[in-house]
Every structure is written in structure tokens, then in C-alpha cells.
Design goal:
Elements lengths: L1 H18 L2 H25 L8 H21 L1 H8 L2 H6 L5 H23 L12 H26 L5 H17 L12 H8 L2 H14 L16 H25 L2
Helix pairs in contact: 1-6, 2-3, 2-6, 3-6, 3-7, 3-10, 6-7, 6-11, 7-10, 7-11, 10-11
């Protein structure tokens, strides 16, 4: 009972803090608009495959993944904030388990990231992508799973960071490679072998590919160089789920070492 109450309070506190950050809502729209309608429009003139899926439609799952990645990873900055201002120490000495602290942080980051991904889905009609109710539910469920895994990764890293400066440097070095090696702006299978190997070690690759499976399943395109999904949906879900399990356990282990 105490642990459940602790998770609820920590989750609610983090969501309230995020809701007060007015700039986050602007960023939720500004970054996808820039990539989809500016970068996407330019690149679509170069990448003209004439297939069922246009290049801007192909980019949409990647932009959803980008929104989740940025929101989930940077939501963990609250841990560094709490450490610097002493609140983290107060939580750590409370009669609750470190697992409850981590779960509360992960749930709040997951909810925030999933909601931002849901907002981005408003762009679907503008891109000419038609979805039914089951596809929307599938996208939301996959967004939650991907957000959970990436938030856990962010918390694992933040648990070892002492200052904002170090955190920002590490995160910036991590986020952009994860994004560019995820198949968000070009198919993984057309990359050189060494980049293809790196991409297939990237959990975001499978999250974005899962979105493609849901959105473009009817297009019937899959395989080398296509603008559709490159892996079976079951493989995508399995990889992201296993990554989530590993990250949450490592995050809890890291929190247990904090004094």
C-alpha cells in the first residue's frame, strides 16, 4: 500500500512539473513540423520512388519516434535537478523502496512522451495517411512501450550524473546517433554494412519499425530499400520489450547504489 502510494505521488509530482513547462508543448509541434514539412518536403524531391508510400509519409513514424525519444530521455533530467536541490536525498531516505522511486519516474516520463506522440498523430490526415481505430490503438500502445524503454534508459544514465552540464553533454551525444541510426529518415537496409549493424543494435530502430508495421501494413511493401517496415512486428515488440526489461532493472540497480 505504501509503495503504491509512493509511486502515485512521485508520478503525479513529475507530471505537474512537466505540465508547467509551457515550452514543451511548443516543441512538441515545432520540431515535427520542421522535419515533416520542411526537411521532408526537400528530401522528397531527391528521394522519389513513386511507390505506394511517399517519403513524407515514410518519415512520419520516424518523427513519432523522435518526439518520444527527446521527451523520454530529457524527462529524466528531473533526477539531476532533484539531486542538485536536495530533494532526491529526501526521497531516498523515505521508507520506500528504490524500485518505487524508479517506477514513479518511469511512468511519468512514459505518460508525458506517449501523450506528445498522440498529439503528433493529428498530422496524419495532412500527410494523406488514413488510419482506423485499431491502428490508432496500436500506435498508442507501441508509443507507450517505446516511451517506457527510452525513459528507463534516460533514468539509468541520469542516476550516474551529478550536474546539468554533464547530463546535457552525454544526452546530446546519445540522442542524435540514436535518431539518425533508427531508420527514421532512410531505410536501414540501404545503409552500408557497418551502419546497418549499428542500426540493428539501436532499440529506437525497432520502435519506429513497429510504427511502420501498423501504418503501412496495407501497402504490402517490405524488404530491401523499401519505404515500409523492415522487420516483422513481433520482432519489433520483442526487442523493445526486452530492452525495456533490461533498462528498468539496470536503473533500479543504479538507484540502489546512490547514497
Amino acid at each position: 500500500m505504501i509503495e503504491g502510494r509512493a509511486i502515485y505521488v512521485i508520478t503525479l509530482r513529475e507530471l505537474i512539473k512537466l505540465a508547467r513547462q509551457k515550452g514543451s508543448l511548443i516543441n512538441t509541434f515545432a520540431r515535427p513540423v520542421l522535419w515533416l514539412f520542411v526537411v521532408g518536403s526537400g528530401l522528397s524531391q531527391i528521394v522519389n520512388r513513386g511507390g505506394v508510400v511517399s517519403y513524407k509519409q515514410f518519415m512520419f513514424p520516424g518523427i513519432m519516434g523522435m518526439v518520444i525519444l527527446f521527451s523520454a530521455i530529457f524527462s529524466s533530467i528531473s533526477i539531476v535537478w532533484d539531486r542538485e536541490f536536495g530533494f532526491l536525498r529526501e526521497i531516498l531516505v523515505a521508507p520506500i523502496s528504490r524500485l518505487s522511486i524508479v517506477i514513479g519516474k518511469v511512468i511519468s516520463g512514459t505518460i508525458s512522451s506517449s501523450l506528445q506522440a498522440a498529439v503528433i498523430m493529428l498530422f496524419l490526415p495532412l500527410l494523406g495517411i488514413r488510419v482506423n481505430f485499431s491502428q490508432v490503438l496500436g500506435l498508442l500502445a507501441l508509443s507507450f512501450l517505446l516511451a517506457f524503454s527510452l525513459t528507463s534508459l534516460g533514468i539509468l544514465i541520469a542516476a550516474h550524473m551529478e550536474t546539468f552540464g554533464v547530463f546535457n553533454v552525454i544526452m546530446n551525444l546519445l540522442v542524435m546517433p540514436l535518431f539518425f541510426l533508427s531508420g527514421a529518415i532512410y531505410p536501414v537496409n540501404i545503409l552500408p554494412l557497418w551502419l546497418r549493424i549499428l542500426s540493428r543494435c539501436n532499440p529506437l530502430t525497432y520502435g519506429i519499425d513497429a510504427f511502420k508495421n501498423v501504418l503501412f501494413a496495407r501497402a504490402g511493401i517490405q524488404g530491401h530499400g523499401s519505404l515500409g517496415a523492415e522487420f516483422p512486428l513481433g520482432v519489433d515488440i520483442l526487442v523493445v520489450s526486452l530492452f525495456s526489461l533490461v533498462m528498468i532493472n539496470l536503473a533500479v540497480a543504479s538507484f540502489r547504489k546512490i547514497q
